[in-house]
Amino acid sequence: MPYLLISTQIRMEVGPTMVGDEHSDPNLMSFLGATKRNMLGNHFWEYYVNDAPRVVLNKLESCGYRVVSMTGVGQTLVWCLHKE
């Protein structure tokens, strides 16, 4: 999977950071220390870590991912990354 979306809500200084969905690479999720969860009311699973986005972005850079774009959606920040 060359593309990856990560996001955080409200406070980007402390996390948690959402790092994947139910179809994400399990090896990458393990490397990030991500936990799979299903939030009440959602019909999908997501992976998250308690790290701040800055920490997650540094880890992903060490794996060859680069930020393609970043945006704010309401109180959520989203980063799109790509791996060559």
From TrEMBL:
Chief localisation class: cytoplasm
Keyword Kinase belongs to the record: no
UniProt key word Manganese: no
GO CC field: cytosol; nuclear membrane
The entry's keywords: Cytoplasm, Membrane, Nucleus
One MF term in the entry's GO annotations: GTP cyclohydrolase binding
Compartment(s) of residence: Cytoplasm, Cytosol; Nucleus membrane
Signal peptide: none
UniProt cross-references to Pfam families, sorted A to Z: GFRP
Biological processes, Gene Ontology terms: negative regulation of biosynthetic process
Highest rank taxon of the organism: Eukaryota
Alphabetized PANTHER family for the sequence: GTP CYCLOHYDROLASE 1 FEEDBACK REGULATORY PROTEIN
Family from the record: Belongs to the GFRP family.
Protein name as catalogued: GTP cyclohydrolase 1 feedback regulatory protein
Originating species: Thinocorus orbignyianus
